[in-house]
């Protein structure tokens, strides 16, 4: 299983970067990419808040949800600048979400401190397809056990392409002592904005949705799933300069909250 977004990423070539927008991470400011992404659709007016074309602004559907478990994203610097990134959807819905920028040479000090905080039970979300860390692999029952001990389960998701995620996993010494939780799911991706190598490759938001659901945060998972659908549909429609009307079922559910 690979849970990460495909490395076949047409959006990186076709979409405008959002440098200088309101999309900066909660932690330090990432360095801008060396070259700006090409500018298909750069004439389109985007919403300052959600970054989508105003035609299909996501903001009316931004519903907050509470979850017991938390999601901490370690985001590859290049991901921050892709408007198709779905990690930001998690933070939009679940306000406890933490976003860290990954740098190979400088581990984030705030993250390092949080990892030592005994209130949290952090799990690195990663496939168990290599033998050298098999002794660290746990199942979802470990998440429920942490909750039973009044600790806050934390899903640490490496937000990047598959290649970037593997590099982050291997090159981040501060993750070496943490349990590794592979996501086991039958879900097939519904993400339409990047071409997946396989239907089993879920995007970052979908990974969070399934983990939250399996960990018992079903309400938060359902809200995030609807919000993901609205983002996915709205973004795809915007590429065709098409406004979604009438609202989809997910839009109606979120608007009713
Ligand atoms: Zn908006």
UniProtKB/TrEMBL annotation:
<dbReference type="Pfam" id="PF03942">
    <property type="entry name" value="DTW"/>
</dbReference>
<dbReference type="InterPro" id="IPR005636">
    <property type="entry name" value="DTW"/>
</dbReference>
<feature type="domain" description="DTW">
    <location>
        <begin position="43"/>
        <end position="240"/>
    </location>
</feature>
<dbReference type="InterPro" id="IPR039262">
    <property type="entry name" value="DTWD2/TAPT"/>
</dbReference>
<protein>
    <recommendedName>
        <fullName>tRNA-uridine aminocarboxypropyltransferase</fullName>
        <ecNumber>2.5.1.25</ecNumber>
    </recommendedName>
</protein>
<keyword id="KW-0819">tRNA processing</keyword>
<keyword id="KW-0808">Transferase</keyword>
<keyword id="KW-0949">S-adenosyl-L-methionine</keyword>
<feature type="region of interest" description="Disordered">
    <location>
        <begin position="1"/>
        <end position="35"/>
    </location>
</feature>
């Amino acid at each position: 299983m690979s849970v990460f977004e495909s490395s076949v990423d047409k959006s990186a070539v076709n979409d405008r970067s959002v440098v200088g927008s309101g999309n900066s991470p909660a932690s330090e400011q990432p360095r801008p990419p060396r070259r700006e992404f090409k500018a298909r659709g750069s004439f389109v007016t985007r919403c300052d808040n959600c970054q989508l074309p105003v035609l299909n602004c996501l903001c009316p559907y931004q519903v907050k949800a509470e979850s017991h478990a938390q999601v901490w994203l370690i985001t590859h610097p290049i991901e921050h600048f892709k408007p198709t990134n779905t990690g930001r959807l998690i933070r939009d819905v679940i306000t406890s979400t933490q976003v860290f920028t990954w740098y190979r040479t400088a581990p984030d000090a705030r993250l390092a401190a949080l990892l030592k905080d005994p209130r949290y039970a952090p799990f690195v979300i990663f496939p168990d397809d290599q033998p050298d860390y098999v002794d660290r692999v746990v199942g979802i029952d470990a998440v429920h056990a942490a909750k039973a001990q009044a600790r806050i389960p934390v899903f640490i998701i490496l937000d990047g392409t598959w290649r970037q995620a593997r590099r982050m996993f291997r090159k981040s010494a501060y993750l070496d002592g943490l349990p590794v939780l592979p996501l086991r799911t039958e879900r097939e991706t519904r993400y339409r904005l990047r071409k997946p190598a396989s239907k089993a490759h879920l995007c970052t938001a979908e990974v969070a949705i399934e983990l939250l659901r399996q960990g018992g945060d079903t309400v938060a998972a359902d809200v995030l799933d609807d919000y993901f659908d609205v983002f996915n549909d709205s973004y795809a429609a915007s590429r065709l300069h098409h406004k979604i009307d009438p609202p989809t079922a997910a839009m109606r559910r979120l608007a009713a909250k």
